[in-house]
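User: Second chain of the day. Same drill as before.
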Amino acid sequence: MTVGIELASMAFVPAQPLNSSGQAFSDDDLTIAVLSRMTVPVWVFDIDRSVILWANASAVAMWRADTLAELQARDFTTGTSVTVAKKLKQYQTDFIRSDATISEVWTHYPKGVPSTIHVTYRGITLADGRTAMLCEGGGEVKETPDKIRSAEALVHTSVMITLYDSGGSVLYLNPAAKTMAVEGAIAIDSHFVRPADLFRLRQQLATRREAHFVAEVLTSAGVRWHEIMARYCWDPVTGAEACLFSEVDVTEIKQAEAQALHDARHDALTGLPNRTYVQTVFAERIRDLLAEAREVALLFIDLDRFKTVNDSLGHTRGDQLLMEVARRLTDMVTGRGEVARLGGDEFLVMLETFRGESGLDDFVHSLQDRLRQPVILGEHDLRLTSSVGISVGPVDGCDVATLMRHADTALHESKRAGKNRRTLFLPKLGHAAESRLRMEIDLRRDFEDRKLRLFYQPRVCVRTGRITGAEVLLRWPHSSGWISPDIFIPLAEDSGMIVELGAWVLREAAIQQMAWKHRGFPVRLSVNVSARQLSDGSFLSVATDAISMVDADPADIELEITERLMLGGEDCVVDTLRRLKTIGYRISVDDFGTGYSNLAELHGFPIDCLKIDRSFVANLNEHGPLTNLIINMCHLMKFHMVAEGVETSEQLAWLADRNCHEYQGFLFSPAIASDQFETMLAKDAIHPLAHG
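Assistant: Same format as last time:
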């Protein structure tokens, strides 16, 4: 098959076809003779294979080659930048699509020597049907270095540069802009996805003669986010007013921002909106509904005795249960409102459609029935009830905070009345503060009546499987049922009662430790200490008295503080810890990994033991490398270590392989009463331990 080549106004058919292998035209061909004798450099470049197929003598000299064969043997792949390669592919597309002629100032580097020339490109069809590029070189450009470099930068930059005339039509596209341009889009009007962004552009240009904003635009890669900077200038060719655009693709940044915003507003476990979402999106939606003279209901939902599931089956099963509850709530509410998880086993439903009070009550009744249906977790068939508190706007409030407070008050009334109930907020129920006050009164009364109890969760040696000690945990058997520490400990913190409670726990722990020691069970007990206690001026005296009154060895008592407290930096807290260490107490950091610190930051503190947070142990597939790093650093820094929340034999084996010292969790035992723990100690029959 022969190939017709058009150069200027002369058409010819070569005696031998030009093919992709670089086979040259025969020397006796008139056309080749004419081309060869031209003083203008002419060459044919195979874009797909990055080789020169043919060049006349002027082009061979321009490329600083000794012979045509030497030039044809050069591989231009290594010397071609990614940007130039993309540009040539774009040119190839333009040749095929519209038989384009392209002229540009081009810098090439024959044998490493830069040379800037004018060059004109046309498409040429090879014998195998592919499109190559016929190149015609002009004179060398004698410009200043700055001008040459600026032209090169315009070619290589990933910033998309476009020049529009005053009517919005395209005058110039640099290679980056040409690559991203939509086929046939030759005007600025077709660039933006939203007309409002085009209006914003024109408004900013009209008032400031420049514009800067981020918008969604149409590109050859689809809809993308671009940061756009535009300003009026002059067309250097015609002298007419023009507008210069520079655009940077920020789609990945926008997507990352959107993902970060989503993560900040949604619960990691269930994927439901969280409290932050409620305080923003729910709040806005409630304002809109009330502005339209519509009603809105908030349902505060709490799962009854959920903590029992966690304590008996472990947190993994508890999480599975929460995800199933989230799914059921979403199925029930979709099309009528939204569901959020506020934390723990607390959910919030915003209901926009309920057809009056009777319709609302019917819906909540159906919702509770749905939640009461069996949940299969492994071999366990669970049936959970729920308590619900309800508030309705605008009757019970006109903002999300007030409606949530009143729904929470109604929820407490449901739980107080025996759980598995739904309660509509009424003014006679009072405010949520009154409910907290009642609980505070109950807590103080039960504390003074010595109804609070201490439970003990065993700490076990990973190597030997024997009990080495226990974490002391405070429990409250309230008249309405066991109250979760997650509820009454923050209440005690806020009220200041934690100072008295903490002192009592420490004294009781010292008494119990000595009692077991005298019975032949020399276990070490660890006691949680709050920031409020450490900041109290009497705590050092309390700590000293606790061991002196029973002649206990302070090394047998370990004081657990949170990682966040350790890194808070309060001088009084750090000083108190140092003095406690001087007395002889051991200091451990509880829940390590949740405070976003690192071990190096803790090195200067008086720490003996580090407790690895249960979240790391629960998900070793994801957090294994980080957990392994923590263990290795503990060995290096000579910290004793305890892994919390161990629930499976696989987790224990993983910890044993890495020589973790101790563990605690449901695999061995939940927290149990003192008599149960003593029975366990007797069965374990441990020997006196040299504590590490």
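The domain at 5-144 is CATH 3.30.450.20 (Beta-Lactamase).

User: Great, on to the next one.
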